[in-house]
Design brief:
Blueprint: H1 5-11, E1 21-25, E2 28-31, E3 34-36, E4 43-47, E5 55-59, H2 63-66, E6 75-77, E7 83-85, E8 88-91, E9 102-104, E10 109-112, E11 115-117, E12 123-125, E13 129-133, E14 136-139, E15 144-146, E16 149-153, E17 156-159, E18 163-168, E19 178-182, E20 185-188, H3 206-209, E21 213-216, E22 224-228, E23 231-232, E24 254-258, E25 274-275, H4 278-281, H5 286-289, H6 298-303
Parallel strand pairs: 1-4, 2-5, 3-6, 4-7, 5-8, 6-9, 7-10, 8-11, 9-12, 10-13, 11-14, 12-15, 13-16, 14-17, 15-18, 16-19, 17-20, 18-21, 19-22, 20-23, 22-24, 24-25
Length: 306
């Protein structure tokens, strides 16, 4: 028995080569920050509650208090092969600027049946191949951001304020990175007034200006985000996408949809986005998009989680 999650991470028995460490977390609210370092691969955290709401790891740092966005994360993951099941990860700073709940730089990482909660910059999905399945992710502005190769399958992405769901940061067309939102739901709970304009939330960003939800904007010029057979809430702005105030991003970013449903679908998407055919969409399914040179099967690996 360990008194904190971090204590368990620091003192767990070391597995054999190719082995995996399972850390079971009793229901409760854990007010702490946790760090999984590069020399701790193949860690699995499992919440023992009946549902992910029962086991919560939470902290509340924002960028102003911490000295920058990348010092705010409640959970930082650097060891490859990280997995989490039946847990909630939260940054409870609220609508106070950038405040990261999870910073994920773990290749071959999986979140299954989890909740990731914040407002601005909730999930920094930044490196390696990542798979989020049956998971609830909540935020307002750019709440999934970074440069990972990530698939979000059967998830609910919930906007708790006006802004953008994604801000991908691919820097070259040769990079294999991108976000795929597959068989998921975009939901929203917005007040009736637009967000204040100024600073990063500038007037060029129509979703923020009009108090709506945008599907994505390019944090870096070659951002790539694809939505496949995902249900769109009515709060999704008709244009869907934004160039982040720079028209040159329209010729480099790759934003696409296939089979969108719900009241937020539109025939008025920005002209530089793409509507895919079924055949084109197949390349973004997780078994292919996440395979890599080692033929990783994220779907099969997630199925083995408790």
């Amino acid at each position: 028995m360990f008194p904190t999650v971090q204590n368990a991470l620091d003192h767990h028995p070391w597995p054999t080569d190719g082995g995996r460490v399972y850390i079971e977390i009793a229901p409760g609210i854990y007010h702490e920050r946790i760090l999984v370092t590069q020399n701790h691969p193949n860690i699995t955290l499992v919440g023992l509650g009946a549902k992910p709401e029962d086991t919560v790891i939470t902290n509340s740092l924002n960028a102003k208090a911490a000295g920058g966005t990348f010092f705010t994360e409640t959970v930082e993951l650097n060891g490859k092969g990280f997995e989490a099941d039946n847990l909630t990860f939260e940054n409870a700073a609220g609508d106070t600027g950038q405040a990261v709940a999870v910073a994920n730089r773990s290749d071959r990482s999986i979140f299954k049946n989890c909740r990731i909660l914040g407002h601005q910059d909730t999930l920094f999905a930044d490196y390696g191949r990542q798979y989020y399945v049956d998971t609830y992710i909540e935020g307002g502005v750019d709440y999934i951001f970074g440069d990972a190769t990530a698939v979000f399958e059967d998830d609910e992405l919930h906007s708790n304020g006006p802004g953008f769901v994604t801000a991908h940061s691919r820097t070259s067309a040769q990079q294999s990175t991108g976000y795929v939102i597959l068989n998921s739901r975009i939901t929203a709970s917005l007040d009736s007034s637009p967000a204040p304009v100024g600073g990063e939330q500038d007037a060029a960003n129509s979703a923020i200006r009009h108090g709506r939800v945008g599907l994505g904007r390019p944090w870096r010029p070659y951002a790539r985000v694809v939505y496949i057979q995902t249900q769109m809430a009515s709060e999704v702005t008709p244009g869907g996408w934004d160039n982040w105030g720079n028209s040159s991003n329209e010729s480099t970013a790759y934003f696409a949809e296939f089979g969108s449903t719900g009241p937020g679908t539109s025939k008025s998407r920005v002209s530089w986005s793409h509507q895919l055919t079924g055949e084109e969409a197949k390349q973004y399914l997780p078994k292919k998009f996440l395979a890599g040179s080692d033929s990783w099967d994220a779907v099969a690996e997630a199925a083995r989680l408790p």
